[in-house]
Write a structure and sequence with these properties.
CATH topology: TIM Barrel
Distance between the termini: 17 Å
Strand content: 25-35%
CATH superfamily: Aldolase class I
Structural class: alpha/beta
Number of domains: 1
Strand order of the largest sheet: 1-4-5-6-7-10-11-12
Number of helices: 10
Number of strands: 14
Order of helices and strands: EEEHEHEHEHHEEEHEHEHEHEEH
CATH class: Alpha Beta
Largest sheet: 8 strands, parallel, barrel
Shape: globular
Helix content: 25-40%
Oligomer: single chain
Length: 254
C-alpha cells in the first residue's frame, strides 16, 4: 500500500549543514554525516540533500562528500546541486544516490531532463522548482538559490518537465522557507492539478499538524521539511528529530 513520504530536507554549504529563512541568512546547524547517522536510527522514509552553493558558484558537485553521505545512509537519498550534465548525474548515481534533483540546469535546458531520464530511468530524475509569489499575483520560478528571477510560470514548467521525462516534481516555496508557519496550500493545490507525477512539497512546516494538513488534502504525496526536523522548541535549539512510527500512523489515518 502506498503511503505519503515524510522527508527531511538538508541544505549543504561549505561541507556543513545550514538552515535558511526565505533562502537567506544561512545558519550553521551541524555536520551532515552526523545528521545522516541520526536519521538512519529514526528510519526516515527518504532524505533530500541540496548543495546551495554549487550552482551559485558554478562548482562541480562535491563527489567526495556525496560518497561519504551515501556510504553512511540506510535510506533512499535525493541529491541536488551543481548537476549540469548526464555524466555528472551518472557519477553521482554510481556513488549510491537514488535520485538526482535538477533545478537551474533543467530551467535552462529542459532537454537535460530527457537525457538523464533516458540513461538512468525517469523515476530517478527530480525537477525542483523554487517558487515565489509575484507582487501583483501569481507565482514565478527563481533559480540560483532564489537569487535570479526567471520569468517562468511554475505550473507551465511542471507540464513541460513531465513531457520531458521527469519522474517527480518538488515544489519549494521561497516565501515560506524557514518561516515554520505552514505550507503555501494555494501553490501546492495549483501545482498538484498540473501533473500526475509523484510530487513533494517543501517550505513552511512548523508542526506535524502542518504535514497532516497536506496529507489530508492530497493523500499520496511527499511532504518535506527542513527547520521542523533540525530545530526544537520556541528558541529553535538544534536537535535532529523525526516523527515516531506511532506519530506517522496518526498523520496517515485521520
Amino acid at each position: 500500500m502506498l503511503r505519503p513520504r515524510i522527508i527531511p530536507s538538508l541544505l549543504i554549504q561549505d561541507n556543513g549543514l545550514v538552515k535558511t529563512v526565505n533562502f537567506k541568512n544561512p545558519k550553521y546547524v551541524g555536520d551532515p554525516i552526523n545528521a545522516v547517522k541520526i536519521f538512519n536510527e529514526k528510519a526516515v522514509d527518504e532524505l533530500a540533500l541540496f548543495d546551495i552553493d554549487a550552482t551559485v558558484k558554478d562548482l562541480e558537485p562535491n563527489y567526495s562528500l556525496i560518497e561519504r553521505i551515501a556510504n553512511q545512509s540506510r535510506m533512499p537519498l535525493c541529491y541536488g546541486g551543481g548537476v549540469k550534465t548526464v555524466e555528472q548525474a551518472q557519477r553521482i548515481f554510481g556513488l549510491g544516490i537514488e535520485k538526482i534533483a535538477l533545478s537551474s540546469a533543467a530551467l535552462q535546458n529542459p532537454r537535460l531532463i530527457t537525457e538523464i531520464a533516458d540513461r538512468v530511468g525517469a523515476q530517478s530524475v527530480i525537477v525542483v522548482l523554487d517558487v515565489k509569489k509575484k507582487l501583483f499575483g501569481g507565482y514565478e520560478v527563481y533559480s540560483h538559490n532564489g537569487k535570479r528571477s526567471t520569468g517562468i510560470n511554475p505550473f507551465q514548467f511542471i507540464e513541460q518537465a513531465q513531457r520531458s521525462g521527469a519522474g517527480e516534481i518538488i515544489i519549494n516555496s521561497i516565501d515560506q522557507d524557514g518561516m515554520m508557519k505552514g505550507y503555501d496550500t494555494t501553490l501546492i493545490d495549483k501545482a498538484r492539478e498540473k501533473t500526475t507525477l509523484p510530487m513533494t512539497v517543501l517550505g513552511g512546516a512548523g508542526s506535524l499538524e502542518d504535514i497532516r494538513d497536506i496529507i489530508d488534502r492530497h493523500k499520496i504525496i511527499g511532504v518535506a521539511a527542513g527547520s521542523l526536523f533540525v530545530f526544537k522548541g520556541v528558541y529553535k535549539a538544534v536537535l535532529i528529530n523525526y516523527p515516531t512510527k506511532e506519530e506517522k500512523d496518526k498523520l496517515y489515518l485521520r
